[in-house]
Amino acid sequence: MREPSYAELLRQSLAEVPIKKKCCVHAFHDASALFEADVTPEARAKQISAYEERAKCPACVSHFVRALFCRRGSVTNPEKRYHLELAMGSDAECEALTDLLESQGISGKTVVRKNQTIFYLKDGEAIADFLAYIGANTAAFDFMNSRINREFRNTVNRQVNCDTANIEKVLLASGKQISVIRYMKDHGIIGTLPESLRETAELRLLHEQMSLKELGEAHSPPIGKSGVSHRLAKIMDAAKALGIEET
Predict the structure, then answer these.
(1) Please, what is the Cα angle at 154 between 148 and 158, to 5 degrees?
(2) Is 112 helix (H, G, I), strand (E, B) or coil?
(3) How far is CA 37 from CA 3, 65, 111, 161, in A?
(4) From CA 16, how far away is CA 122, in angstroms rounded?
(5) Cα separation, 146 vs 81, whole angstroms
(6) pLDDT in tens, 14-30
């Protein structure tokens, strides 16, 4: 037996939520009755368009929209993607629904698919707001929580990518330095460098895996990270002046 989808479970739970006010109960049933077999798309569109004026209280409109969602709505599991829609059928019905929702501060888009005009939302925050509006608070929390987790993962991934890129740049620069310094040592050129640069060059060869901070601490006396970076840059400049490139 097929497991019910996220949307099916949500529609079922919404249909079973107790409604306290009688006028809101009527609002829910009014919307449900629009999908009886003898109701034409034109009549349905007119009823939706006029409903806000006929509503007994502000909550009636949200219960009316809740019933529309129970009959024609669908939403994806937020762990997979963000998409909520109401397949209204005709252009007139969807236009009426769009106007009603916009009057409630909910804006979406429409698309025609398989001879149906569909109102839809694809933004996680907008979907959470819609679900909260129709009383699906648990589902709204699911979307908000998923959105927060997704943003956190994206932030972590960006930071990891940035750190990885920086590490790669450091390793590339270090590899070039070591290649040049080794060439200078093999050809007796390193001895022509000033004593401070010679010390840094020897330490760079001796401790290839050290960070600049660690390399600075290995000097006698220790020097800072910027000092090491400056000395290595001077060594590379000296090599360049002698026509030495990394090998």
Answers:
(1) 145
(2) strand
(3) 28, 20, 24, 57
(4) 26
(5) 10
(6) 888 888 899 999 999 99
Residue 221, preceding bond cis, omega within 30 degrees? yes
**Is 120 strand, coil or helix?**
strand
Dihedral over Cα of 40, 42, 48, 52: its sign = negative
Q: Which class for 103: exposed (0-12), middle (13-18), buried (19 or more C-beta within 10 A)?
A: exposed
- Residues 6 or more apart in contact with residue 25 via CB below 8 angstroms: 19, 63
d(CA 153, CA 38): 50
pLDDT digits (tens, 9 = 90+) for 182-194: 888 888 888 888 8
User: What sign for the dihedral angle of Cα 179, 185, 189, 195?
Assistant: positive
